[in-house]
Amino acid sequence: MPDLPPSTGGRLTGLGVSQGRAAGPVIRMAAPPTLPPPRPVTDPGAEASAVAKALTAVAADLNRRATAARRSPSTGATGTAAAGAGEAGAPGPDDASAGDEAAEILEALAMIAEDPMLLEDAESRARDGMDAAHALDAAFTQHREALAALGGYLAERAADLDDLKHRAVAFALGLPMPGLPAPGHPYVLVAADLSPADTAGLGPDVLALITERGGPTSHTAILARGRGLPAVVACAGIMDVPDGTVVGVDGGTGEVAVGLTEEQAAVVREDDRAERARLAAGSGPGRTKDGHPVKLLLNIGSAKDLRPGAEGVGLFRTEFLFLDRTTAPAFEEQVAAYAEVFAQAETVIVRTLDAGTDKPLPFLGLPAEPNPALGVRGLRVDRLLPDVLDTQLDAIAEAARKTGAEAWVMAPMVTTTAEAAGFARRARARGIARVGAMVEVPAAALRAGQLLREVDFLSIGTNDLAQYTFAADRQHSALADLLDPRQPALLELIAMCAEAGQEAGKPVGVCGEAAGDPLLAPLLVGLGVTSLSMAPVCVPAIREALAGLTLAECRDRAMAALS
Fold first, then answer.
1. What pTM, to 2 d.p., does this model score?
2. Would you name the residues annotated as active-site residues?
3. What are phi and psi of 540, to 5 degrees?
4. Is residue 187 within 8 Å of 206, Cβ to Cβ?
5. Of the candidates 456, 457, 460, 478, the residue with the CA atom closest to the CA atom of residue 468
6. Three-class SS of residue 546?
């Protein structure tokens, strides 16, 4: 596609996290409610009651929006169809999977608002003489500080508390709950950062997203990719652009052209519409220009996420079945969920439960840790709760027998050869045909050859592998450059895994966000990766990117990137 047109206000550059282009007037997210000075309290009981009402209202609002998202997957908070390409008649993605993912995020936030410890803390402050708004603010602040101190995934959840606090305080003050702008016309949404609730509720008027903070694996990035919505994060200076300024957004390069004319904006939109239509017309398996096969697979959370046009499932995230539960799903429920996917896809790679104190699931009851990202997560949960993995493996094996499918199963957060061997023994004892390991820590990549003596395939999770390689929190916007999958050190680890796979004659795929990037996919193939697994909306662009290059050209690009 041509470059964005020249602009009168210059250009800003951020991190492009969702392919596509858009153009329209900027509208910035409204500021959260301002907390007024404390007021005298004459009835502490009434203030405590107001606290409870505010938290109940926030939870009810989030649950209502989650129900709407599940009932009509392409519906945002405004109750209308979510944006695809941003123009009527333009081809956009099927938003069913985005609807499910949005609902899950909204439901998880509602659970936080319903936390009895949070309620007890805020009510106690109100009974001690604080007005409801200040009691809520103080309780949320204390809980936020506790989560932030834990780091990793829980530190990200601390940012979610800010959004919930603003909503609860607004209700207590009698103000509208903060949320997305509704100007009545298409616009480019600009924010310092977006909460999961706001991102999940995006409506059809939002043409593109630009945030000042955020990283490649933030909620904003993941949900934008799932919807096919152009997005740029970590864009310094974007909050200084006045509302109404027309900008052009390139979600691939991360460029933002400030101060376009309406005629220029129309050209950007037309180019994007034509490009989406052209990509949607493509079909067939993944191949390079000279016919080298590369399987193009899907990342899914359930059977609802399956789409035509791919060659199977490269990452079945089974943890979505376990979310927001106080008890583990029963054996029969797991069998039904896995069988539904097996019956509809030729190849399915199931990842066993990827959870722990960095991705808390209530039923696990794991103790708090000082550094959850380096603690009990993924396969390591088996050290404390082996029955969880045993039941899941039994259910996967039974679902495969019922459907006649060949089950491929992999474990997350494998670190040592002994862990891989132990997992493989347990899976094969149940008749599971293909057993693999995720490569998410450098130790696994460095011993890829030894791992492949024990398992049948490897799948590289580039999001976590980057985080652990560069000691950079994947949610930290100031470190976004370290999390760029083009970093040579990360590419070297991927190359080591691919070379080990070639020597062993076993497949090595990538299922991290890098697999869905048209600029990165050829590099990964050039390094020797045999499959790429991604969000469904990414498949057409990846198919075309590979079809335009020979294998030799992919290898040349990979070598240039390594050097």
1. 0.70
2. 219, 511
3. -60, -45
4. yes
5. 460
6. helix
* Distance (Å, whole) CA 1 – CA 24: 18
Give the C-alpha distances (Å, rounded to integers) separating 235 from 13, 16, 17, 257, 326. 6, 9, 11, 12, 39
DSSP H/E element including 410: strand 407-411
Q: Is 459:410 a contact under the CB 8 Å cutoff? A: yes
What does the alpha-carbon distance between residue 133 and residue 172 come to, in Å, rounded to a whole number?
A: 6
pLDDT in tens, 303-353: 988 888 789 999 999 988 887 677 888 999 999 999 999 999 989 999 999
Q: Which pair of structure tokens corresponds to residue 471?
A: 């000691």
Residue with tokens 């797991």: 334
The Cα 194–Cα 55 span in angstroms is 21
Q: Residue 272 is which amino acid?
A: D
Are 132 and 126 a contacting pair, CB within 8 Å?
Answer: yes
CA dihedral 300, 301, 307, 309 (to 10 degrees): 10
Element housing 134 (H / E): helix 132-148
Closest among 46, 5, 1, 33 to 19, alpha carbons compared:
1
Q: Give the number of other CB atoms < 10 A from CB of residue 174.
A: 7
